[in-house]
Design brief:
Belongs to the Gfo/Idh/MocA family. This protein has nine helices and 16 strands. It is α/β, with parallel strands linked by helices. The structure holds nicotinamide-adenine-dinucleotide (NAD). The site of nicotinamide-adenine-dinucleotide has 23 residues, from helix 1.
Length: about 350
């Protein structure tokens, strides 16, 4: 670890901006250099918390003491702030979804390259423990060859806040939570996507989607269901994955769940028929205990490097950025394809 301390100024001191303060302060090489928000009340809160407040974005960008600009505003203004900050010579971290369209994102990437500054997107859920456990289960082939994956987040509280309900601000659940789940999905396989089908939900009557279900097929045969809901009073599991040798489930953020696999040491034992409603079934009976193995979901060690540690190492030329532009772009193209599939009610066959 180097000795230099980098000053980070937070643009947009709302829910996420004020959370970033904690992440920044826990890194020895980063300091919160100040805050800028267009709403006076948010600036008062920042000042009360002891942070320097800037009178304008221009004032932040003109300050030579500012090394990094962190953008935590609503989605519609990410692009203009990012480009101005890069052109002012700052490194930039932008909240997700980085932009509302994939074309807008490429404009930022071009400026970052020209200005030779580090630009990345806070896809923090790549560090989520549930995701890292699932990735390990898949990578270690604990359930054999993966052929089906279901990843969901569901709540019953509708779309929170104000701007998230408005299209002009880049609202809606596909851009909000979808961007996380799709980013995680694309980290799970190297295979290209072959086709996308989707249905978006407008139950709440907002102009943006309050959830969606997408069906994504990869060239290697993996089929994924990615789903976000805000009208689910009862939730389905966070993760459900099937492989040739078993099934794993993680039910919730508390990591409750289990892995059940075929027992390789025991020849198949016929299950006993069970009463199912008004009939008997062997097909839908649980597999016999003798022929299966059951494992708990084990916690895993923290990732070697956090998001911010990686960002600092990248600035210092000691590491490659964890969240790469090509990856961010691919997720945005996938989001656009899901919108298109939903609007046209068709299966889009496209290599992504
Ligand atoms: P929020 O509404 O709570 O906060 C946004 C803040 O930005 C507000 O204080 C608002 O006054 C300010 N603002 C608006 N326009 C501005 C401008 N032009 N210049 C300066 N300040 C401006 O929203 P939020 O929930 O904090 O979301 C902010 C961003 O963070 C969004 O992009 C969102 O998607 C993202 N986010 C990411 C995560 C994550 O886990 N990575 C979680 C929540 C939100």
């Amino acid at each position: 670890m180097g000795n230099r301390i980098y000053n980070v100024v937070i643009i947009g001191y709302g829910g996420m901006g004020s959370y970033h303060v904690q992440l920044i302060e826990s890194n020895q090489q980063l300091a919160v250099g100040g805050v800028y928000d267009i709403v006076d009340y948010r600036m008062e809160l920042a000042a009360a918390a002891g942070y320097k407040t800037y009178a304008s974005l221009d004032a932040v960008l003109a300050d030579q003491a500012v090394d990094i600009v962190l953008i935590a505003t609503p989605n519609d203004v990410h692009k203009e702030i990012a480009i101005q900050a890069l052109q002012a010579g700052k490194h930039v971290i932008c909240e997700k979804p980085v932009t509302i369209t994939s074309a807008d994102f490429l404009d930022i990437v071009e400026v970052a390259k020209k200005e030779n500054r580090v630009f990345t997107v806070h896809q923090n859920r790549r560090w989520d423990e549930d995701f890292r456990i699932i990735k390990d289960i898949i990578g270690n082939k604990t359930v054999g060859e993966l052929f089906q994956l279901e990843s969901r987040v569901q709540g019953a509280n509708g779309i929170p806040g104000d701007w998230r309900q408005l299209k002009a601000y880049g609202g809606g659940m596909l851009l909000d939570w979808g961007v996380h789940l799709l980013d995680q999905l694309l980290q799970i396989t190297d295979s290209k996507i072959e086709s996308v089908a989707a249905t978006l939900s407008y139950i709440l009557g907002t102009e943006v989607d309050d959830g969606f279900t997408s069906f994504i097929e990869f060239k290697d045969g993996l089929k994924a269901v990615i789903e976000v809901g805000t009208t689910n009073y009862v939730k389905l599991p966070r993760w459900y994955i099937k492989g040739t040798e078993g099934t794993a489930v993680i039910r919730d953020w508390d990591l409750s769940g289990e892995i059940v696999t075929r027992n390789p040491d025991v020849a198949h034992v016929e299950p006993k028929p069970i009463q199912a409603g008004q009939g008997l079934t062997k097909t839908m009976a649980p597999p016999s205990e003798e022929s299966t193995l059951k494992f708990p979901i084990e916690k895993i060690p923290a990732a070697a490097e956090s998001f911010y540690e990686n960002f600092v190492s990248t600035i210092e030329g000691k590491a490659e950025i964890a969240i790469k532009s090509e990856e961010v772009h691919r997720v945005l193209v996938l989001i656009e394809t899901i919108f298109e599939a939903g609007a046209t009610k068709s299966v889009i066959r496209r290599t992504i």
